[in-house]
């Protein structure tokens, strides 16, 4: 019995751990000014505006976003105010998520879509071209609806310009 009581009074002391207090705060690198979650924007009642440039891209869902001619558009935020993550909902039920802690850009959204469709052939897709995004807070305050179309506008070909010269 004496051995049992002496075990209870003894305790190990680790000099590396004892005396240090752990802070339970978020890393400063994870926090970016003016970047919110969709839930925070809904709670605050803020209005979300989607970048109109997404409607003019005429981008095929199964081609890499890096092939777009307008590279500067890819760096623009997908919506104002900027969000950390957004769910992109397709009319047939597919849902993909675009994430970026510094704010989701158009490139982040296109990359998330491309990842789903890169193995599909053109004839497998009913509407292979991105028409734009829509935010409907009555339906869901956390996601954007993806609109697609059959064909994009014909891009001006460079062959004609060379032939004219």
UniProtKB/TrEMBL annotation:
Residues 15-24, 142-152 have a biased composition (Basic and acidic residues). Residues 1-30, 142-165 are annotated as: Disordered. Residues 59-125 form the DUF6699 domain. Residues 1-12 have a biased composition (Polar residues). It comes from the Eukaryota. This is DUF6699 domain-containing protein. It comes from Lophiotrema nucula.
